[in-house]
Write a structure and sequence with these properties.
mainly alpha, single chain
């Protein structure tokens, strides 16, 4: 088992002296627990607030409280990941890969994202698919109607990318890359779960999400920095949210 498979190249000596990270199943448990707590808490709150008119509750993508729900669940996941890192007797930043990326890795990451996005956009065009998904348009429209656009931008562009990368390319990658899966197996598995977790998309959206997750995994493995993938994920979500804004405004 290669404990250094998911570690930053900038800190090999310091990392070697730390205890092993959480194993495969413990890592999975730490990641799933906050989801169960978060979803059950939010579901209970939504039912309580809408008691007596449950049949009139809006679908998720039309719910103006969606950005707040995302912020709560994602923040809870990161808090649990940080707690797990401390219980493993690691510095939180080191465990989650929150190291400053090298300039060369940033440039390579941006170039790779641009290439993959262009390829996916080309496939979107060839298949006659919409460049902006209904979920993105509907959620943006619901937030605009409710006056919560600032919260939506915060959730979609800052909180979700940061927390998702910390969980997938940080916490899960750390534990699973040190397991018999190794880094390549971890990249495939985390990318698949990452795609499945985005239940708001159809099969094509899930395929795009898998491709971006795999790219982030490779960049995380190569650079040793989750911070790099956070930056790139923010960039992608900014572009997607901006396109949604243009679509809702009737400009595209």
């Amino acid at each position: 088992m290669n404990q250094d498979a998911s570690l930053s190249r900038d800190q090999p000596d310091a990392i070697a002296e730390l205890p092993p990270p959480w194993g495969f199943w413990a890592t999975l448990g730490w990641a799933v627990l906050p989801l169960l707590i978060g979803f059950s808490t939010i579901a209970a709150a939504v039912l309580w607030l809408n008691w007596g008119q449950i049949d009139k509750m809006p679908e998720l993508h039309h719910d103006p409280s969606l950005p707040l729900q995302l912020i709560v669940i994602n923040t809870l996941q990161v808090a649990m990941a940080a707690l797990a890192a401390r219980l493993a007797q690691w510095p939180v930043g080191s465990y989650l890969g929150l190291t400053r990326p090298r300039g060369r890795d940033v440039l390579i990451g941006i170039a790779a994202v641009v290439v993959v996005m262009l390829l996916l956009e080309g496939l979107t065009y060839l298949l006659g698919r919409a460049h902006v998904t209904p979920f993105q348009v509907d959620s943006y429209g619901a937030a605009r109607a409710a006056g919560t656009l600032a919260l939506l931008w915060l959730a979609f562009v800052i909180v979700a990318p940061t927390c998702e990368e910390i969980v997938f390319r940080g916490f899960l990658f750390r534990g699973w890359a040190a397991s018999p899966l190794g880094a390549p197996g971890t990249i495939l598995l985390t990318s698949a779960i990452f795609a499945i977790a985005h239940t708001q998309y159809d099969w094509f959206g899930a395929l795009q999400t898998f491709c971006m997750g795999a790219l982030f995994g490779v960049l995380r493995w190569r650079s040793g920095s989750t911070t790099l993938t956070i930056i790139l994920h923010m960039l992608i979500n900014f572009v997607a949210t901006a396109w949604s804004a243009l679509k809702v405004a009737g400009l595209v």
